[in-house]
Amino acid sequence: MEVRTLSSWILRDPLGPGLSCAEARASARGILAGLNPSSARVNDVLTVVSEMISNAGRHAGGATAFQITARSGAVTVEVSDRSTSPPLIRPWAPDEPGGFGWRLINQLAATDVLLHHDGKTVTATLTAAQTGQS
C-alpha cells in the first residue's frame, strides 16, 4: 500500500494581519483533494482549520504560520501565533456567545501546544478513528 504525504506551509509576516480562515481552508481543501477523503472527514478538518485560525485571530493577534499535512489515516493541522498563552476550554455556557472553538477542536482531534519565545504553535491531529472515517 502506497503511503502518500501531502503538505502545505504558509508563513505570514509576524507583524502583519495574519492568515484568513478562507486562505487556510483553501489550502486544506487543496491538500485533502490529493488523498480523496470522505466528505465527512473533509468537513471535520475544515472545521478544525477554521476554529484554529479564528482563535489565533481572536485571542492571539493572528496566525503567523499555518501548516497542514495529510497522509493516509491522519491529517495534522498546525497554527502558530504571537501569544504565549495556551488555549483554554472555557466553562460550558450555552447561553453566551463564543467559547466553543477550543472545546470543538479537542472533540475532533488530538491536540498539543508548544510555547516558544515568539508565541506558540497549536497542533491538532485528526485520525480515522477520531472522525469515524476510514
Percent strand equals 25-35%
Order of helices and strands: EHHEEHEEH
What structural class is derived from the secondary structure elements?
A: alpha+beta
Helix content: 25-40%
What is the overall silhouette?
A: globular
Helix count, DSSP H or I runs of 4 or more residues: 4
Mean pLDDT figure: 83
Taking pLDDT < 50 over at least 5 consecutive residues as the criterion, the unreliable ranges are: none
Distance between the termini: 15 Å
Q: How many DSSP E strands?
A: 5
Tell me the strand order in the biggest sheet.
1-2-3-5-4
Largest sheet: 5 strands, antiparallel
Radius of gyration: 14 Å
Oligomer: single chain
How does this structure look, described?
- With 134 residues, the chain is an alpha+beta fold.
- Strand 4 and strand 5 form a beta hairpin.
- Helix 1 runs antiparallel to helix 2 and helix 2 runs antiparallel to helix 3.
